[in-house]
Design a protein that fits this description.
mainly alpha, 13 helices, ABC transporter permease, membrane, transmembrane, ABC-type transporter activity, transmembrane helix
Length: 291
């Protein structure tokens, strides 16, 4: 298993798609999370000549800029984890496996020493490690951006406690890892990178968003949506604060899922995807290809 893990980690590190995907995630934090938000809010703040009902806009914008300061870095940065980060992680997880089917390299791997479960365990562990590094890098980027905003505004710098940083790292990793393992499971199930990515993104961007919007009109649907991974990802990130703007995945519901419950639900989804992926057996045609 250790050899499979080392091989998968080397492969993921050398694959350009890995760097491109996580660069997009980092840019979403820098550009959408901080730069564009800061420019928008400072533009509103500069519109002090506004009249009538918009007279309070500069005051609200000044308060919202304060949400970008280092003391709120965890809330602002984690917004990107449940939004663009979820989509990036799902694609990353799917591509980590689907390439083996597309390039027909899985049979070469399986004809070597490691068994199928060892290969899968190596992939799952390597994906988890890359996601952990990416989550930590995302928080570091958020810290640099919030520090820059604080310097630009001449505001005092106050950071969250070390324990709070560790909690945010764990929550961010869980959000990204859940989506990555969903993508991995879809790739194992469908044996296709394009199909698994397409179905995964349609679910994240359309199906769950539609159900979340309709849940406001039906209590039973609201209970069902409360068990979905996207809703729990958003609510887990919101446990660190709601940030300057609404989450990328949409407005927050009136009642948030408790963070402990959200973490357990996401962990259950991760374990379920890994377990189901491990129990999917090669089809008859795959076995014939190995002979």
């Amino acid at each position: 298993m250790l050899a499979s893990f080392a091989a998968e980690l080397l492969k993921l590190r050398k694959r350009p798609a890995t760097w491109i995907l996580w660069t997009i995630f980092g840019l979403s934090i820098v550009l959408l999370g901080y730069l564009l938000t800061y420019l928008l809010l400072t533009a509103l703040d500069g519109g002090a000549s506004s009249q009538g009902p918009r007279q309070d806009a500069p005051v609200a914008a000044k308060g919202a800029v304060a949400e970008l300061y280092p003391r709120n870095v965890l809330a602002t940065t984690l917004r990107s984890f449940g939004g663009i980060g979820a989509g990036v992680a799902l694609i990353f997880g799917a591509l980590s496996v689907s390439g083996e089917y597309g390039w027909d390299t899985l049979k070469i791997v399986l004809t070597q020493r490691p068994g199928r479960l060892s290969v899968l365990a190596g992939k799952v562990t390597a994906v988890g490690v890359v996601v952990l590094v990416s989550a930590a890098a995302g928080l570091v980027l958020g810290a640099l951006c919030s520090y820059s905003v604080s310097l630009a505004e001449g505001a005092p710098v106050s950071w969250p406690s070390a324990g709070r940083w560790l909690e945010a790292l764990g929550a961010g990793w869980l959000i990204l890892a859940t989506n990555a393992y969903m993508g991995l499971f879809l790739a194992v199930l469908l044996r296709s990178g394009a199909l698994s990515v397409g179905i995964g993104l349609v679910y994240l961007l359309v199906v769950e968003g539609l159900l979340t919007g309709l849940a406001a009109f039906n209590d039973r649907l609201e209970t069902f949506v409360g068990a979905l991974p996207g809703r729990n990802s958003t609510d887990l990130a919101a446990a660190f604060g709601q940030g300057a703007l609404a989450p990328q995945s949409g407005p927050l519901p009136a009642e948030l899922v408790e963070p402990q419950q959200a973490a357990l639900v996401l962990a259950a989804y991760s374990l379920s995807c890994i377990t189901l992926g491990a129990h999917l057996r090669p089809t008859g045609s795959d076995i014939l290809k190995l002979l």
